[in-house]
Amino acid sequence: MTSAVQAYTYTGPSVLAGGKLGLSTSGGTALSGPAAHPRFFSGLLTHAAPAAAGLLAVADVALTRYHQPRPGSTRDPVVTCDGQRLRFESFSACGGVYARLDVLALDGDMLDRGTTNVDVNGPLRESLARVGGNDPLHLGVGADELTVTTLDGAVVEKKVPLPPRWLRGFAEVQVMAAGWDLRAELTAPQAVRFLRSLPKGARSTVWAVPAGRDLRLSATGGRGGVCLSGTGRVATLLPLLRFAKALRVYGPADGSATASAWELELPGMRYTLAVSPQPARGFSGEGQVLDDLATDEAAADADVIGMLLTFQPAVELGLLTDRSGLPLQRVRAALTQLGTAGRVGYDLHEAGHFHRELPYDRAQVAALNPCLTAARNLADSGAVRLLPAGQAEVTTDGGVRRVGLADGTCTCPWWFDHRGSRGPCKHVLSARIASRLAVEATP
Predict the structure, then answer these.
(1) Is residue 391 one of the residues assigned to a domain?
(2) Residues 437, 386: contact at Cβ < 8 Å?
(3) SS3 letters for 300-340?
(4) Is 137 in the same domain as 92?
């Protein structure tokens, strides 16, 4: 599948000079609608050094290919302003690591709400690395109109490929994270000791297993343990340890060998890093969104829910249920649909969704999920035969596949290889689609 090309156009490069950090913006969405260079915030970062280090960490993730490292294109972080905080986000070039910096301690004017990309160039990265001390730093996200008019000839343009796995990754992360629990919380000294004890090899796999109020490393999983595959992928946490107040670890309640999230509590902000189950396995291949996308009403429901999103600090499911008139399950499915277009994320600390806007077209959903397209084709062609006791048979070119509707089992090679860990196969999806259609057709 070919990559889309994202064109960034900035009025000038982002600059840090004289205690002022000016972040140039490009092609975003504000409350008032699309904006070429939205302006969201002007004021002070009350904790300059951790903010500079955190922004640099997010930018580092966007530049890094953890699996099979090689030079890649420069991708600029995404920033969302919700009127109370700034969220900086990025994905690694390999699609297996997600980073977000939530800046909470802001003293200034929230000029608008919305999402955009910000320019993080080489000279700015060098300047951010030199920020120290406790002095506040003035931050501007977007240049004011006077500044823009004086930058004639200083336009900065970047054109970079955005792989489809980026968009799928944003969708998969928010769905997976919604099912994770807080597994451990360490004090700053414990966090430093634990993270510095991790094996240095980028491909090493370990388990973080609770030991009283601390964590210990294990080669195998244990009760409440969290899997960390590719320990080198959490390297961006290490430069932030000197500011850390706590470390929180999130993972699935069943302790399975799957993705995990690592959250550093910093002065006035939080830095969250989510890593996929394996270094060679990006979030885009997890398939956790497919069941929600397979519902017939998801797209229409997403249109309704999308109109109710206004970059609020937290998306309240109960409020959306009341305002939309949709049941909770359909609201969740609609949020998954919106997530495939980059319009919804998930905050583990606050256990809730948040609204953002990325430059992706919802029409890409089918192309980004070929398994779903194949399942719909099987259901539409009559290849599915529903059987008693929640069973079904799906006839394909490769033979007849036996499917369990409730447990998602299948006799195809995909299921035997992954056993549901990477989402349902096309045969299970097609059987579930056919089953829903049969129920709807029953008087």
Answers:
(1) yes
(2) no
(3) HHHHHHHHCCCCCCCECHHHHHHHHCCCHHHHHHHHHHHHC
(4) yes
Mean pLDDT by groups of 10 residues along the chain of 443 residues: 72 89 90 89 92 94 78 79 94 87 93 92 91 83 61 67 69 80 93 91 79 86 81 92 95 76 96 88 56 65 87 89 91 81 87 83 58 83 90 90 89 82 81 83 69
Cα(68)–Cα(362) distance, integer angstroms: 31
Give the tokens for residue 341. 């277009």
Distance of alpha carbon 230 from alpha carbon 208, whole angstroms: 13
CA distance 309 to 323: 11
Helix, strand or coil for residue 115? strand
Query: Quick one: 35 and 109 in the same domain?
Result: yes
Helix, strand, coil fractions of the chain, as percent rounded to 5: 30, 30, 35
Domain co-membership, 230 together with 258: yes
**181 and 153 share one domain:** no
Domain count within the chain = 3
CATH number of the domain within which 211 lies:
3.10.150
| Alpha carbon distance 375, 355 (integer Å) | 30
The residue among 366, 384, 371, 370 whose CA lies nearest residue 432 is 384
In terms of residue numbers, what domain contains 439?
A: 369-443
Burial of 290 (0-12, 13-18, 19+ CB in 10 A): buried
Q: Is 27 found in the same domain as 119?
A: yes
Rounded to a whole number of angstroms, the distance between the first and last alpha carbons of the chain is 43
Residue 322 lies in a domain: no
A 10 A CB-CB count for 169 gives 26
**79, 55 contact by CB (below 8 A):** no
Burial class (CB in 10 A: 0-12, 13-18, 19+), 40: buried
Are 185 and 247 in contact by the 8 Å Cβ rule? The answer is: yes
